[in-house]
Write a structure and sequence with these properties.
heterodimer; A: about 325 residues; mainly alpha; 2 domains; about 75% helix; about 0% strand; globular; B: about 350 residues; alpha/beta; Rossmann fold; 8-stranded mixed β-sheet
Chain lengths: ~325, ~350
């Protein structure tokens, strides 16, 4: 609860820096420079937009509007920014959710396996694969996945529809959670998480190895606890604790992957909105976007804190 | 420490109910644990570490056997070898007979059934040895539940009873707490409760008091002793603290470089030591009662040997003031000489030690 309170000033300060960054790098009056009489038009426009005031005053105006639920309208489309964000948020949240779940399950399974069977063939294989995964840029993996898993089967087996789709999250006219959805989901989720899976599985392996050599694991064995139970009851839960930290820190990293992934798989989510707004110089949308992402990262870290409490009684707040 | 004040605090004397039996081995009973020719080697990058070298000893029912030696003398490795808990790369030879059956190299399942049930272990650092994410009660209950099918209610009652037995007040509430909520002494008590949960025949206590301050040490040893009168377990007390051994053990093995140096009753070891190493150890104990002003503590010259390159002959010869550096001590490993019943010294000159000249 106290953490939630702490995150409010963090958010306010973050919003100021984002505002400052965007205002100093982007000039909304630039498009009038080429017109005749530009000096007068620009000056008028600056007054109209409030750009003649100090940066703090500008930020304050924006911030108070935000508190009233008004994030302004897009410079490009004149749509309301809040509406654009909520619209884009949904597909991204789906990707993030399934991505995190998938990455966690695979990374934990691989990590535990590799630690328990240290130096086995399987361990070496997973080590090799994960290094490839770490070294592979997201965009390259996405494009490779499309050509190998979508294009290749279609041309090879003369399919009318591919097994896995590479565009959007639903076929046109369809929605909801169904086979069609899953067939769309596989590739973007894979692309988004390949690096996370690789890194997290290495991390889980190391932390599991650590724990397997801990004194309390030896105690459990000395009590006569069967090996399986030693691994999954005594070691596993302790090994998860450090992973939570890494996953929480990586949440921001995932958003970077989201920008690339959504672009490759034509998913109109936050990543695409970011790219469009950035290239189109859409300051109000970018501002709102950063705010939403900041909230997301903070929420993710709050969830991580909650997980700590669940996993580790030593840091449970009484 | 051996005496328990019968008029004292009823809280601490509650478990005196069964008649107090002195912890001395009844000579006619067969040993409950019998170690023969135990050797443990670890291959490392620098060479083979011989942690335990041809060690043999017996543990009798209801006795307390002290195993003393400095760090790296093979005490803990011996205890882990008995339970089959050494890492995979360890090469173990010899025999460990529990009630007559060799359990060294036995199937994992056989060992598993013995561990914690018939042979239990108390570890040194209770904070590290208890799992931080489970409650103390939960961990004690587990050591019972692994071996016995008890309904949950009985299990909980037994946990509370055990915590009470080791002198933890408010045992029912304490059972629900986590190890980090316990103090050091309490954790070691909880550890003891866990190890005696199934009334084991042998209790191996590996430096149970090393991490504790002196008053808590005494309390924990006291608990161990009281537990023994109730459960009649044999206790193997591994320690580097001669004071602890003197207070609790009936018989003592002194180890040096993975080998036995001397074996005998506490009195024999402390008052008639027949091995130069034992003598050196005792002489280096600070004495409050015979203090001379500005007296320097006695020390054993040299350093403990590397277990990769153990000195030839007697492992102690480079540091031994009695050694014959031209003869036997360097060339031949000393046999175990039995000087009187149950008093053995692994020294070529054990019988004539007192007459031997001492090197300056």
């Amino acid at each position: 609860m106290r953490r939630i309170v702490y995150s409010v000033p963090v958010l306010v300060i973050a919003s100021f820096f984002v505002f400052w960054g965007i205002r100093t790098t982007y000039d909304p009056t630039a498009k009038f420079r080429a017109s005749r009489d530009s000096a007068r038009i620009i000056a008028a426009k600056r007054k109209e937009l409030g750009l003649d005031k100090t940066i703090i005053a500008q930020w304050w105006t924006w911030f108070t509007h935000f508190l009233q639920g008004n994030l302004g309208v897009s410079d490009r489309t004149n749509d309301r920014v809040w509406g654009m964000l909520t619209h884009a948020m949904w597909p991204s949240l789906q990707l993030m959710f399934w991505g995190t779940m998938f990455a966690l399950v695979i990374a934990i399974a691989v990590g535990v396996y590799s630690a328990v069977k240290q130096y086995s063939i399987g361990d070496y294989a997973f080590t090799g694969i994960s290094y490839i995964g770490i070294a592979m840029p997201t965009f390259l993996f996405g494009l490779l996945a499309i050509s190998l898993l979508v294009t290749l089967p279609v041309t090879k087996f003369h399919l009318t529809h591919p097994y896995l789709y590479s565009v959007g999250l639903h076929s046109s006219g369809k929605s909801g959670f169904n086979i069609d959805y899953l067939r769309h989901l596989v590739l973007p989720v894979l692309t988004l998480t390949v690096q996370s899976v690789a890194v997290w599985s290495r991390f889980q392996r190391a932390s599991m190895l650590d724990v397997l050599h801990a004194d309390y694991v030896r105690t459990a064995r000395a009590k006569g606890v069967p090996r399986r139970k030693v691994i999954f009851r005594h070691a596993f839960r302790n090994a998860l604790i450090p992973l939570v930290t890494v996953v929480a820190l990586d949440s921001a990293f995932l958003i970077g992957g989201l920008v690339i992934t959504e672009q490759i798989f034509s998913i109109s989510g936050m990543g695409q909105l970011f790219l469009f707004s950035l290239t189109g110089g859409d300051a109000p949308v970018l501002l709102g976007w950063f705010l939403v992402v900041a909230v997301f990262v903070i929420v993710f870290n709050l969830l991580a804190d909650l997980m700590y409490g669940v996993l580790d009684p030593r840091i449970r707040i009484s | 420490m051996t005496q328990i004040d019968p008029t004292g605090d009823p809280e601490t004397n509650r478990i005196l109910e069964p008649p107090f039996v002195p912890a001395v081995a009844p000579s006619d009973a067969p040993p409950v644990l019998s170690v023969r020719g135990l050797s443990v080697e670890f291959p490392t990058d620098d060479g083979v570490v011989r942690a335990v070298d041809d060690l043999s000893f017996d543990v009798f029912p209801n006795e307390t056997l002290g195993i003393v030696g400095e760090s790296g003398s093979g005490k803990s490795v011996t205890s882990l070898a008995i339970l089959g808990l050494l890492p995979k790369q360890a090469r173990v030879r010899g025999e460990v007979r529990f009630r007559g059956d060799n359990i060294l190299g036995a199937k994992e399942n056989t060992l598993r059934e013995l561990r914690g049930d018939r042979i239990a272990m108390i570890f040194q650092d209770a904070l590290a040895a208890l799992n931080p994410v489970f409650t103390v009660g939960n961990q004690i209950a587990e050591s019972i539940a692994v071996h016995h099918d008890l309904p949950k209610r009985e299990l909980e009652a037994r946990v509370v009873e055990l915590l009470d037995m080791v002198g933890i007040s408010q045992p029912a509430q304490r059972a629900k707490q986590y190890p980090h909520e316990f103090s050091g002494g309490m954790r070691q008590r909880a550890m003891i409760a866990m190890s005696i949960a199934n009334d084991p025949d042998v209790l191996i206590a590996d430096e149970p008091t090393t991490a504790l301050d002196v008053t808590i040490q005494a309390q924990v040893l006291d608990v161990l002793e009281r537990i023994q009168t109730r459960t009649r377990s044999a206790i193997m007390l591994i320690t580097h603290d001669l004071g602890v051994v003197a207070g609790v053990a009936a018989r003592v093995i002194v180890m040096y470089a993975g080998r036995q140096a001397e074996l005998g009753t506490v009195d024999e070891i402390f008052y008639e030591p027949k091995h130069p190493y034992t003598r050196g150890l005792l002489a280096s104990l600070p004495r409050v009662d015979r203090r001379v002003v500005n007296e320097r503590l006695h020390r054993i010259e040299g350093q403990p040997p590397s277990l990769i390159f153990v000195p030839s002959g007697c492992a102690f010869h480079p540091r031994c003031p009695y050694a014959d550096l031209q003869g036997l001590c360097v060339s031949e490993r000393p046999p175990s000489v039995e000087l009187s019943v149950g008093h053995c010294s692994d020294c070529h000159f054990a019988a004539t030690l007192d007459e031997r000249p001492v090197r300056p």
